[in-house]
Specification:
By secondary structure, the protein is α/β, with parallel strands linked by helices. It has a domain at 522-646: ANL, C-terminal domain (GMP Synthetase, Chain A, domain 3). The protein contains 20 helices and 30 strands. The strands form 8 sheets. It has an 8-stranded mixed β-sheet with strand order 12-11-8-6-7-14-15-23, sandwiched between helices. Strands 5-4-17-16-18-19-20 form a 7-stranded mixed β-sheet, sandwiched between helices. α6 links the parallel β6 and β7 (156-159). α5 packs across α6. The protein is globular and about 75 Å long. The two termini are 34 Å apart. Bound molecules: 5'-O-[(S)-butoxy(hydroxy)phosphoryl]adenosine. Residues 261, 307-308, 383-386, 408-413, 434, 497-499, 511, 514, 520, 525 line the site of 5'-O-[(S)-butoxy(hydroxy)phosphoryl]adenosine (WT7). 5'-O-[(S)-butoxy(hydroxy)phosphoryl]adenosine binds at residues 261, 307-308, 383-386, 408-413, 434, 497-499, 511, 514, 520, 525. Pfam families: ACAS_N (PF16177), AMP-binding (PF00501), AMP-binding_C (PF13193). The modification N6-acetyllysine is found at residue 608. Residues 530-608 form the AMP-binding enzyme C-terminal domain. Residues 81-468 form the AMP-dependent synthetase/ligase domain.
């Protein structure tokens, strides 16, 4: 059966990238990359225009990735100052509060003023070029000011998602030796306060690295502890500092930010992005993927604590002089119609969200959607995990009234921005397909033995990328060896994504999900090893193995097999305590869905846990357990299957 396809609507026939233009540009980006990228680089304002385009090697002894190396620019200038002349009075950011009565919009001129002051506040507390600044903020405009202020003075921000625990913040402060933290008294989500400043205090206490200064934004006015000499109120400092702050000239390869992300082993890695290539990629993909037009109101629902928020709330849209909406709340507060209410209220044209949100809202039926005017919408986007065709169709038909293309954008924290996505004016859509590579991107498939699969025709395997693109991460902060091991050692000469993919007969790419031990919970990335290490840190736990299993709303749920110390019987309290343990070590997003106590785990005779079997049991695919005769104690499997059935 031929796949269902959705044609390019009439309203996108005059899009920036038409089918013909896509073909020409893609071919040129591969055949003449230097010329292609030199032209694309013109979208940025350079203090010194780069002459060199790229210098890249994925080789073990010589791993380096450099783009526009001799160029000089400032990312904040590109996102703010350069628009003042032509867009000074245009809305740069719209803030929509958790409470629907609260909203606020600022122009590019106001943004400039806020960011310059914020930058001077950072200087006043001692921040210098190259210093790492940890940003632990709610979704308020000051989060964007803080990021841009860092970029303005050449400091490197490390945004930590506001849902992470004090332990998680402490680990990140220690890893990048961050002397400074920017936070708020409280965040608010779904009407409830989140004690951000308290979490920062606890994190600083636990961190081995000494934090010198904390800049605190007053958001809710909640009472917070203040440490004299260390803590500073933003609203007080703002009155003291100068309104003028010249942007620092930065080399294209100077670091812009670090963002921690989970992998299949060990602690989260600090993904490092640099200034020129990243900004170009964020701006270029924002323009092409979303067919950006001057009058658009762009709403990406992600949190700035994730890369999606970095690239598509802050850097991409602002570099393009767009109007970007930042939403503090959650999709279901005060009611399940909140998203659509906001769309109507601010006349959103481009809406970008995650499949998990779509699935959750789909369960609420069509009424909450249909009661709001969505005539302003022209384009919808999806990101974070594979979108199932049912959710895709609901998004397209119900939310978009069949009129708005849905761009399913595949990318990663490591890639800086979109790598595989349909372009709304260039490609017919197939529900669930990430579709085609962005300019300059060369996806390829390899089998488990490392053999490259043919470059055309139908194929399925592990997804790798041949060659580099400007938005690629440059290193794992402080651990270049780990950068090599994680991404370049599996299939030497290529970047391994950790995802599986299929290319169909029409050349469309379909992402099939992670092939490593990384979970995707509601579009949030989590390593099974991190959850395991949180579990075994509990004094009652002897051993733990964590796998994912299909979850109707979250995409994947967290399934934990736990062996307690000898002689201990599990109780409901133990289960609750273990869940709490994981929440407090990582954060609420890591809360286990199922804890399955077992006296032992299936292991090979050499003592290796057979995760493949545990995964199949968690998925309920008992018929696919394969050969279990090589296990040290094959009978464990039967008892685990029994235990799983009881939990279904
Ligand atoms: C992983 C990256 C990219 C920003 C948000 C997540 C999965 C992401 C898609 C998509 C299928 C997707 C992949 C990827 N993923 N987008 N459109 N279709 N899978 O960033 O936390 O770095 O996670 O998310 O598995 O490797 P991240």
């Amino acid at each position: 059966m031929a796949d269902e396809r959705v044609a390019i609507p009439q309203s996108f026939k005059d899009a920036r990238i038409t089918p013909e233009r896509y073909r020409q540009m893609y071919e040129r980006s591969i055949a003449e990359p230097a010329a292609f990228w030199r032209e694309e680089a013109r979208r940025l304002d350079w203090i010194k225009t780069p002459e060199k385009v790229s210098d890249v090697s994925f080789a073990k002894d010589d791993l380096h990735i450099r783009w526009f190396e001799d160029g000089v620019l400032n990312a904040c200038h590109n996102c703010v100052d350069r628009h003042l002349e032509t867009r000074g009075n245009k809305t740069a950011l719209i803030w929509e509060g958790d409470n629907p009565a609260y909203h606020h919009a600022i122009t590019y001129r106001q943004l400039h003023n806020h960011v310059c002051r914020f930058a001077n506040e950072l200087k006043a507390i001692g921040v210098k070029k190259g210093d790492r600044v940890t940003i632990y903020m709610p979704m308020i405009l000051e989060a964007a000011y803080a990021m841009l202020a860092c970029a303005r003075i050449g400091a490197v921000h490390s945004v930590v998602f506001g849902g992470f625990s004090p332990d998680a913040i402490a680990g990140r402060i220690d890893d990048c030796k961050s002397d400074f933290v920017v936070t708020a008294d409280q965040g608010v989500r779904g009407g409830k306060g989140i004690a951000l400043k308290d979490n920062v205090d606890a994190a600083i206490e636990r961190a081995s690295h000494e934090v010198k200064a904390v800049l605190v934004v007053k958001h809710t006015g909640a009472n917070v502890k203040f440490v004299a000499g260390r803590d500073h109120w933003h609203h007080e400092l703002a009155l003291e500092v100068d309104a003028r702050c010249d942007p620092e000239p930065m080399a294209a390869e100077d670091p812009l930010f670090i963002l921690y992300t989970s992998g299949s082993t060990g602690k989260p890695k600090g993904v490092l992005h640099t200034t020129g290539g990243y900004l170009l990629w964020a701006a270029m993909t924002h323009e092409y993927t979303f067919d950006h037009r001057e009058e658009d109101v762009f709403w990406c629902t992600a949190d700035v604590g994730w890369v999606t928020g970095h690239s598509y709330i802050v850097y991409g849209p602002l570099a393009n002089g767009a109007t970007s909406l930042m939403f503090e709340g959650v999709p279901t507060y005060p009611g399940p119609d909140r998203f659509w209410r906001v769309v109507a209220k601010h006349r959103v044209t481009t809406f970008y969200t995650a499949p998990t949100a779509i699935r959750a809202l789909m369960r609420q039926g069509e009424e909450p959607v249909k009661k709001h005017d969505r005539s302003s919408l022209r384009l919808l986007g999806s990101v974070g995990e594979p979108i199932n065709p049912e959710a895709w169709r609901w998004y397209h038909e119900v939310v978009g009234e069949g009129r708005c293309p849905v761009v399913d954008t595949w990318w990663q924290t490591e890639t800086g921005g979109h790598l595989i996505t349909p372009l709304p004016g260039a490609h017919e859509l197939k529900p669930g397909a990430a579709s085609f590579p962005m300019f300059g991107v060369r996806p390829a498939l390899v089998d488990n033995g490392g053999k490259r699969l043919p470059e055309t025709g139908e194929a399925e395997g592990n997804l790798v990328l041949l060659g580099s693109w400007p938005g690629q991460m440059r290193t794992v902060y402080g651990d270049h060896q780990r950068f090599y091991e994680t991404y370049f050692s599996t299939y030497p000469g290529t970047y391994f994504t950790g995802d599986g993919a299929r290319r169909d007969a029409d050349g469309y790419w379909w992402i099939t999900g992670r092939v490593d031990d990384v979970l995707n919970i509601s579009g949030h990335r989590l390593g099974t090893a991190e959850v395991e290490s949180a579990l075994v840190a509990h004094p009652l736990v002897a051993e733990a193995a964590v796998v994912g299993f299909p979850h109707e709303v979250k995409g994947q749920g967290i399934y934990c097999y736990v062996t307690l110390n000898a002689g201990l019987e599990p109780t409901q309290e133990t289960e609750a305590e273990l869940k709490q343990q994981v929440r407090s070590e990582i954060g609420a997003i890591a809360t286990p869905d199922i804890i399955h106590f077992t006296p032992s785990l299936p292991k090979t005779r050499s003592g290796k846990i057979m995760r493949r079997i545990l995964r199949k049991i968690a998925e309920g695919r008992y018929d696919q357990l394969g050969d279990t005769s090589t296990l040290a104690e094959p009978e464990v499997v039967d008892s685990l299957v029994e235990g799983r059935k009881e939990r279904l």
